[in-house]
Amino acid sequence: QQQLVESGGGLVPPGGPRKLSCKASGMIVNFYDMGWFRRAPGNERELVELNARDGTSTYSASVKGRFTVSRDSDQSMVFLQMNGLKTEDTATYFCYTQKTSGYDAGREYWGQGTQVVVSS
User: Fold this and answer.
1) Quick one: pLDDT band at residue 7, thresholds 50, 70, 90?
2) Are 72 and 79 in contact (CB under 8 A)?
3) Would the pLDDT of 54 be above 90?
4) Cβ-count burial of 26 within 10 angstroms (0-12 exposed, 13-18 middle, 19+ buried)?
């Protein structure tokens, strides 16, 4: 089964770091664009950072320099390292992948989300 499951959310004090993890079950990570979106309470889901298969990345201006997406192909995992967290970073964070090759190229996958609350 192809599935994304996020973990690592929780309560974080302002300024603190937090690393989110995403297990991409049944996926060969090298064949996918992968990254993270988030949705704050009452807001639309927005891009955090997307790392394309070719290595290029697209960032939200609000997180660039603070958040970094990485992937571990051997373990089929995607990570979001968050540093210098701000109150406005409070949101549910979603792992995202899109297949780039094969019969199902273009298919998108979403995780269920993991909530990050930045508060003292």
Assistant:
1) very high
2) yes
3) no
4) exposed
